[in-house]
Write a structure and sequence with these properties.
Layout lengths: L8 E6 L2 E6 L10 H15 L6 E6 L4 E3 L4 H9 L4 H17 L5 E5 L2 E3 L1 H4 L6 E4 L4 E3 L13 H6 L5 H8 L5 H7 L4 E2 L5 H8 L4 H8 L7 H4 L1 H7 L5 H9 L3 H12 L2 H13 L5 H17 L1 H12 L17 H6 L25
Parallel strand pairs: 2-3, 3-5, 4-6, 5-7, 6-8, 7-9
Antiparallel strand pairs: 1-2
């Protein structure tokens, strides 16, 4: 995944706050393997550092916290038949699990773009802050992939079928919708984030965030819940699309969006969301790792990145080309055990120990 520029992530101690700043603003702070490695190491160190009471993660620049993983690097690795992507995901998923179980308050400024891997380093935190500029989501079906970084579990827990709608369409959602989906906790105007960061240096995370939090606008997803719950209730992607087409203009637009995605990704994503219900995060990440490695060896992931990011012709040629051509056995194959290649997070969770207060 390329050598780490040590400036890709900046770590700073201010008061009792440990600050993580993703520092690739030209790439909207997309994560590479080196960034994940140093974040994992630093967070483990701070977990045992009595002088650090709270951790803050934020993105450099004004475009967003993180636009996801470095998919150009993943594309190059696929072209060369490498194993760097599998290693990257293994470390990234360990980082996601550590954040979810972090022994100290973990505050995430989910300002601007927060997509894919950006959700993984923020939405598992304890204090998740969105703004009027937030555009969050799991757009993986657009590039022939499936939501990962624990995203399938997060979306499976959303109200009704809102998470299914978000996952299959890959929609970019505002801060109010992120709150509704359960991906965030607080709404803070972006202009207040610097003052909030300063307050975190000396105040508790709870007190600091609540001081700046405001009422969020109404969620558009919440207003659409009736048709979303009705249309996405089943486990058959083709039936979902038929129901959407018959349920009014907004629903029909969602059907059009889904039919433009990778048919394989749509069906595997739907199955992932159904299978993940009731699992722990570690079990969900193990499942996502199996599915992800199968995506690496299939045609659509490579084709989706080519069409959207490399050649930018926005005209992917999916194989198979329609939902009807993706069989149940095709989908089942994505969930087959990996044998010795399993991630195994559920059997060997990432350990971090809380610091006893004096």
């Amino acid at each position: 995944m390329g050598a780490l520029d040590t400036a890709d992530v900046l770590f700073e101690r201010r008061g009792h706050l440990g600050t993580v700043t993703l520092n690739r603003p030209k790439a909207v702070n997309a994560l590479n393997a080196g960034m994940v490695t140093v974040m994992l190491e630093q967070l483990l160190a701070w977990a045992d550092d009595e002088s650090v009471a709270t951790v803050l993660v934020q993105g450099a620049g004004d475009r967003g916290l993180c636009a996801g993983g470095d998919i150009v690097a993943i594309y190059k690795d696929m072209l060369h038949g490498g194993s760097e992507t599998a290693d990257f995901w293994a470390d990234e998923y360990r980082l996601n699990a550590l954040i979810a179980n972090y022994p100290k308050p973990y505050v995430a400024f989910m300002d601007g773009l927060v997509l894919g891997g950006g959700v993984g380093i923020s939405a598992h935190g304890s204090h998740r802050v969105v703004t009027e500029r937030t555009r969050s989501g799991m757009p993986e079906t657009t590039i022939g992939f499936v939501p990962d970084v624990g995203g399938t579990l997060l979306l499976s827990r959303a109200p009704g079928e809102a998470g299914t709608h978000a996952a299959l369409t890959g929609a970019h959602l505002g801060g109010a919708d992120a709150l509704y989906l359960g991906l965030a906790d607080y709404y803070v105007p972006s202009e207040s984030l610097p003052a909030l960061a300063e307050a975190l240096e000396s105040s508790t995370a709870e007190a600091a965030v609540e001081r700046f939090a405001q009422a969020a606008p109404d969620s558009a997803l919440a207003a659409q819940r009736e048709w979303i719950d009705d249309c996405y209730a089943g486990n058959d992607a083709e039936e979902i699309v038929r129901s959407l087409r018959a349920a009014g203009a907004e629903a029909a637009a969602a059907a059009e969006t889904i039919e433009a995605k990778s048919p394989t990704s749509v069906k595997v994503t739907l199955e992932s969301l159904r299978r993940v219900r009731g699992l722990s995060l570690e079990e969900a990440l193990d499942q996502e790792y199996r599915v992800g490695l199968r995506c690496l060896s299939g045609p659509d992931f490579r084709e989706g990145i080519r069409a959207q990011v490399v050649d930018k012709d926005r005209n992917p040629q999916w194989k198979p080309a329609t939902l009807a051509e993706v069989t149940a056995s095709d989908v089942e194959g994505y969930f087959a055990p990996l044998g010795e290649g399993e991630l195994g997070l559920s059997a060997n969770p990432v350990q971090s120990s809380p610091v006893e207060s004096s």
